[in-house]
Automatic annotation (TrEMBL), chain B:
Keyword flag Membrane: yes
Name the record gives this protein: ABC transporter permease
Swiss-Prot/TrEMBL keywords: Membrane, Transmembrane, Transmembrane helix
PANTHER family (UniProt xref): INTEGRAL MEMBRANE PROTEIN-RELATED, MEMBRANE PROTEIN
Keyword Transmembrane helix: yes
Lineage, opening ranks: Bacteria, Bacillati, Actinomycetota, Actinomycetes, Kitasatosporales
Species for this entry: Streptomyces sp. R17
Cited Pfam families: ABC2_membrane_4
Residues spanning the membrane: 49-68, 88-108, 147-173, 193-216, 223-240, 278-296
Length: 414, 303
């Protein structure tokens, strides 16, 4: 209704009402349209932006693996998104506490929040955004983006800095002067958690129990890439397939996806969302501890891992890799279905439970399933990728195999 | 119904055209005058000044608390508290970011909700709305003026927090070249520039609430009801944003990307969430702004 109109007569009022009602309805079309257009845009733009699979010359799987091996990308910067869904129960802070305790336990001191070995285990669950930058073997940077904070790991020459902006704490250690052998060794060591690391782990597992094929092409972070698919030939593995998108120009893995044999969402999905192969700005790698920051020095000169303090405990580990972690370990079976076994020596089951104390022990026990077999009784702890059996006499069987295959392996190994 | 339509259709249409011609004929300067009057009325209110005063006090409180806490030389570690709080002791500039991070979830949007909720409903409640409408400004123009005023308030409120924080930070703590959260160092002047940019982004983050408040304001004749509804909606959205089971809904809540302003302190700046935030605010402004327009231009103004 126009501002200066009046409605003193009944008829005029009624007419106005009808007209106003129609006009009101008509005007509400505008916000509804805006919402509809927005919804359509959100829904359609990704579909339209996905311009289909790029046309690339044919390549065989062997050639592609060779291409990955020969890839020597020295300079890059980019953003990596990593999603891990191991199917672990969501324990919130407790979970990351346990994980970092497991990985960072060997460090001396009270454990700075800037210590890399503790921080990178955070990647073991959930979705994280990372930024990576590298300029040759001597300068690398890896940043874990958090809400209004960031954890950066900077390797510049012989210095390794860890900086946690949330607590303003700094971790510092030095690596030996870059000798020839040292450089070569460290040249292989990229910042962990990049698709390349995952791809290397996956390719290590390639043997005659594995089928490897090139499965078309894909576009990752705006670059054309081949898709390499690795599948276990045997049944019984929890690994369904590992798909690696390999950049067609540089041969660098851009995206790695591990899908479980049980179906569902990927266990590990790590890929670049943005990548550039230009030389990153030198200031990226410059770091001086901010004034007043607490600096934790790691004086252990001869660190086993030169630059980034070891790779975090995470998803697609090959069996060999798992084996490295424990002493007195024997492997049962072969290929993807191999199961690692070791004796905790405690003579009783659930060592974690007893060490952790009554309540937590009982809680951990309730997470597993009780099984019986030739080995006596035991408890199976299941995740979507790794299953572990702890028998009552203190033996542990771990593998990326299904629960049935694990019990079978334990019976055979007895 | 259809009979009434045909009978009244012609004269009514003619009437509408007449009014619209009158509206179009209004001088453009008139809008500026209206805008100036609106600004003056809004910023002269004791209510507005009190809100700005409370906002200015937040950085003072945070600054003094951090100062007392770290007075014995210990650094405020642990990583608890609002973002950037651990860096304040070493660089007063970080108080600007901490103060904005502390006020953005509640104080700032609440203040905006009060001003926006009051914008139309307050006038209606006080009986002044129809006098405003008697002037040949047109309802659309009046509504735009109201929204522009609320936008100016968003910027003013954010700048009050930022300037107060900068002053307190300079008084209580040393200033110097800040370290970005990525670990690189930038010059103090670039730090100031980023602080200004962050203030602008924070102000823009409030536009969604402003539009929502304005829409609510057109629904009722009670200013208090409109303010309470807007602030209530704000709290509801904040709570929904905390429930992990509703994560599919989260990207559409106007407060979801608010803290992305901290991405401006990364090196290089991480734009993904910032652009999402600004896009979301623009979407809220478009949807609720046009809904407010649809409601206000067709509403019976009896008071």
């Amino acid at each position: 209704m126009a501002p200066n109109e009046t409605d003193d007569t009944t008829t005029a009022g009624e007419v106005d009402e009808v007209r106003a009602g129609r006009r009101r309805a008509a005007r509400y079309v505008v916000p509804v349209t805006v919402m509809g257009v927005a919804a359509a845009t959100i829904g359609l733009v990704p579909a339209l932006a996905d311009s289909g699979d790029p046309d690339l010359p044919e390549i065989t799987a062997a050639q592609l693996i060779e291409k990955i091996a020969q890839s020597d990308v020295e300079r890059l910067s980019g953003t990596v998104k990593i999603t891990t869904d191991l199917g672990l129960p969501n324990l919130g802070g407790l979970e990351s506490g346990l994980l970092s305790g497991a990985a960072g336990g060997g460090e001396d001191g009270e454990g700075s929040s800037a210590d890399p070995s503790g921080r990178l285990t955070e990647l073991a669950s959930g979705t994280h955004t990372l930024r990576v930058a590298a300029d040759g073997p001597d300068r690398q940077k890896l940043s874990l983006l958090e809400d209004a904070a960031e954890y950066s790991l900077i390797h510049n020459g012989k210095d390794v800095w860890g900086y946690d902006s949330a607590s303003n704490e700094v971790y510092h250690s030095t690596v030996g002067e870059a000798g020839a052998a040292d450089t070569a060794r460290r040249g292989e060591q990229r910042p962990p958690a990049t698709p390349k690391d995952f791809a290397e782990e996956a390719l290590k597992a390639v043997d005659d129990t594995t089928s490897v094929k090139v499965d078309g092409t894909a576009q990752v972070a705006g670059r054309d890439a081949y898709r390499l698919v690795i599948e276990p030939k045997q049944s019984g593995s929890t690994v369904g397939a590992v798909s690696i998108a390999v950049d067609h120009k540089t041969g660098m893995p851009l995206k790695v996806t591990l899908t479980p044999s049980s179906g569902g969402s990927a266990v590990v999905d790590v890929g670049f969302t943005q990548v550039s192969f230009d030389r990153p700005d030198a200031s990226t790698f410059a770091f001086t501890p901010p004034k007043g920051a607490k600096v934790a020095e790691d004086t252990e000169q001869d660190r086993r891992h030169g630059d980034f303090g070891g790779k975090p405990e995470r998803g697609p580990k090959s069996e060999e890799d798992l084996a490295k972690g424990f002493d007195g370990l024997t492997m049962l079976g072969e290929g993807w279905n191999s199961v690692a076994t070791f004796d905790t020596g405690s003579g009783s089951g659930l060592p974690t439970g007893e060490e952790a104390g009554g309540d937590l022990g009982g809680f951990l026990g309730s997470l597993g399933d009780l099984v019986k077999g030739d080995f006596g009784t035991g408890t199976v702890f299941s995740t979507r990728l790794v299953n572990a059996l702890i028998t009552d006499d203190g033996k542990v069987y771990v593998g990326t195999v299904t629960k049935d295959a694990l019990v079978k392996a334990a019976e055979a190994g007895k | 119904m259809s009979r009434a339509e045909t009978a009244a259709g012609v004269p009514a249409e003619a009437g509408a055209t007449e009014t619209e011609t009158a509206v179009r004929a209004a001088r453009p300067l008139w809008t500026l005058g209206l805008f100036r009057d609106e600004l003056r009325t809004t910023f002269r209110r004791w209510r507005t000044l009190a809100l700005l005063g409370v906002l200015a006090a937040v950085p003072v409180l945070v600054g003094i608390a951090v100062r007392i806490e770290t007075g014995d030389g210990s650094s405020s570690g642990g990583g608890g508290g609002p973002a950037f709080v651990s860096q304040i002791t070493n660089n007063g500039l970080f108080l600007v970011f901490t103060a904005l991070a502390a006020t953005l979830p509640f104080f700032l949007p609440m203040a905006v909700g009060v001003i926006a909720g009051d914008a139309v409903a307050g006038e209606a409640g006080a009986g002044t709305l129809r006098y405003l409408l008697v002037a040949p400004a047109g309802r659309t123009r009046l509504l735009l003026t109201k929204y522009a005023t609320v936008m100016v308030f968003c910027l003013a409120a954010t700048l009050v927090v930022a300037v107060s924080a900068l002053a307190v930070g300079a008084l209580l703590f040393p200033l110097g070249d800040p370290t970005t959260i990525s670990g690189t160092r930038i010059t103090f002047s670039e730090g100031l520039l980023r602080a200004l940019l962050i203030a602008l982004v924070v102000a823009a983050s409030l536009l969604g609430v402003a539009a929502l408040g304005l829409f609510v304001s057109t629904l009722t004749n009670s200013g208090i009801a409109a303010m309470a509804t807007t602030v209530g909606l704000l709290i509801t959205v904040q709570i929904l944003d905390q429930i992990p089971q509703l994560h599919a809904l989260h990207p559409y809540l106007f407060s979801h990307y608010w803290l992305s302003f901290a991405d401006l302190m990364r090196e290089p700046v991480y734009w993904d969430d910032l652009t999402k935030n600004l896009g979301l605010q623009a979407l809220y402004a478009a949807v609720f702004g046009s809904a407010a327009w649809a409601r206000f231009t067709t509403k019976d103004v009896t008071a």
